Amino acid sequence: MVDYSWNVIIFQIIFPSMGVTLLMVLCATVLACLLGFCLAIALFWVGKHGLSPNEKCYATLNIVVSFIRSFPFIILAISILPITRFITGSVIGWESALFPLTVAATPFMGRIFENCFKEVSLDLIDAARSFGATNLQIVFKILIPATLPSIVNGGVLSVIQILSLTTIAGTLGAGGIGASALIYGYQSFNDKIMYTLVIVLFVLVLAIQLLGDYVYKRIK
Amino acid sequence: MKKIVMLLAGVACSMLLFSGCSDDKSKTSATVEKKSITIATTALAMPEVELGIEDLKKRGYEVNIKVLQDATTMCKAIENGEIDVALHPHKPWMDSYNSGNKTDIAMLTPYIHKNTFGLFSKKYTKADEIPDGAKIIIPQDESNMARSLFMMEQLNFIKLKAGVTSPTDLDIESNAKNVKIFKIHVHQVIASLDDADAAFSATLFAVSNKLDPKYQIATSQDADKFGVGFIIANKNKDTKWAKDILASYTTEKVREGINVIYKGSSIPGF
After folding, report:
1. A82 cis-preceded (ω within 30 degrees of 0)
2. A189 pLDDT above the threshold of 50
3. What angle do CA B133, B137, B139 make, to 5 degrees?
4. Cβ-nearest to A187 among B140, B184, B195
5. Phi/psi zone of residue A173: left (φ > 0), alpha (ψ -120 to 50 degrees), beta?
């Protein structure tokens, strides 16, 4: 075990990995939010009490979502390596880690957003339909505005989930705070670095949560 | 408040009780002759451990095998007395674990096997051909990272700070070839080889990934330092059963078995 000075810990470990972590979380969140949102709309659309119920479609989507969610992240990341290489041209580096992160986070977000949509009163949808609203109008004029606060809440949950996934993405050479905590802390038996980085992660989680709560209050 | 105090008192009492229990156990095990041995290893080294079981049984022991995930778990289990010995970590790893955690787990000698280590590349056939600015993958755990860095220094890619016994990439003093280092989980290094110019890895992982041996372009000269032996609680290292384990695992049968199982990625250590 090497005892690194705070100078080294802050400038050579925390700063560079913080940048990578923030980039990974930001990009993966944007991608997973967009895709998860579409997935949630699709799930709600063909769901039992949805806009255009289709049992077979829903069952298929449902199985796919649950299938991906059942993979432990590290195994998911390893089993889709060839696809990652095909899409990003490499399997190492944080840009390549975005693909497995997005694949893992999308069904998670999709499920959370779907649950938000399910809370909308069916009477409200029926009423809108009786006024002649199309399905798309129902989604954008009723479903989304009515559930925006819970969508924000669910989003915060997902962002923190993605943050914890980035630790494992470090296995693929992505770097980041979590990976540094593992490499320089856990695997090097250096408690000082390990717990310092856990505190850094804690501050990050806290910041995400506070920001989410603030947005929630503003739109509610 | 009262409840919390009661709860804490309860926890403290039960801890006392349990610690009393384990003390009793260790006393009895020291006096009564040991009849059953629990060996831990990884799924990968399982065939190697199986080589000696029969002989150990002939010596009158009941043998239990536990397959565990990693060396840290094995060390914790040894500290708790849940297993007797484990075969997996190598000596430098064990030393750094002991110094990092202030424990004194011993490694029995002679070693059972030694891990060979090398430089792999699909793009170049000699280490000298690797160009400036090359992308190089190294394993991210302490001992394999250290071994990679020492080998990189040997190959004149980098220079390490003087006197560091277990360096990480933060201890690189100068990077003559300006290589870009990617730290990847030890199991994923070979799988990522296509995306880099070269990778350092234990030969073991090249064999388990079915990598053609021709891609190993340099071999580390330090196999003797990286012996893998049975690890054991320090107080048990001189017991009769520990000696019996060693006797059962330093036979010709085990030597031949190791050569067959590991195909040269690990060589017999005795």
Report:
1. no
2. yes
3. 145
4. B140
5. left
Domains of chain A, CATH where assigned: 13-219 (1.10.3720.10)
Q: Which of B227, B146, B193, B113 is nearest to A187 (CA)?
A: B146
Question: Taking 90 as the threshold, does the pLDDT of residue B1 lie above it?
Answer: no
Confirm whether B34-115+226-268 and B117-219 share one CATH topology: yes
| Cβ pair A188:B166 closer than 8 A | yes
Better-predicted residue by pLDDT, B119 or B226: B119
In angstroms, the separation between the Cα of residue A77 and the nearest Cα of chain B is 11
HSE, side-chain direction, 13 A CA sphere, residue B46: 9
Q: Is B117-219 CATH 3.40.190.10?
A: yes
Indicate whether B267 pLDDT > 70.
yes
User: pLDDT (tens digit, 9 = 90+) per residue, B13-41?
Assistant: 455 444 444 444 444 444 467 889 999 99
Complex-level ipTM:
0.75
Confidence band, pLDDT 50/70/90 cuts, at residue A3: confident
Are residues B147 and B165 in contact, defined by beta-carbon separation less than 8 angstroms? no
Average pLDDT (B133-149) is 92
Range A72-80 average pLDDT: 92
Calculate the average pLDDT of chain B. Answer: 87
How many beta-carbon contacts under 8 Å exist across A and B? 74
pLDDT band at B10 (very low <50, low <70, confident <90, very high): low
3-class SS of residue A29? helix
| Residues of A in Cβ contact (< 8 Å) with B103 | none
Give the pLDDT mean for B89-95: 89
- Pick B182's closest partner by Cβ from A2, A92, A189: A92
- Measured CA to CA, the distance from residue B222 to residue B218 in angstroms comes to 12
* Contact call for B140 and A179, based on CB within 8 A: yes
Q: Spell out the CATH class of B34-115+226-268.
A: alpha beta
Q: How far is B155 from chain A (nearest CA, A)?
A: 23
Contact call for residues B245 and B37 (beta carbons, < 8 A): yes
Strands B135-139 and B180-184, bridge-based pairing:
parallel
Query: Residue B63 forms beta bridges with which residues?
Result: B37
Q: Domain boundaries in chain B?
A: 34-115+226-268, 117-219
Task: Check pLDDT > 90 for residue A90.
Answer: no
Closest Cβ opposite residue A188 in set B135, B142, B191:
B142
Closest Cβ opposite residue A2 in set B140, B168, B188: B168
Roughly how many angstroms between the first and final C-alpha of chain B, as a whole number?
Answer: 61
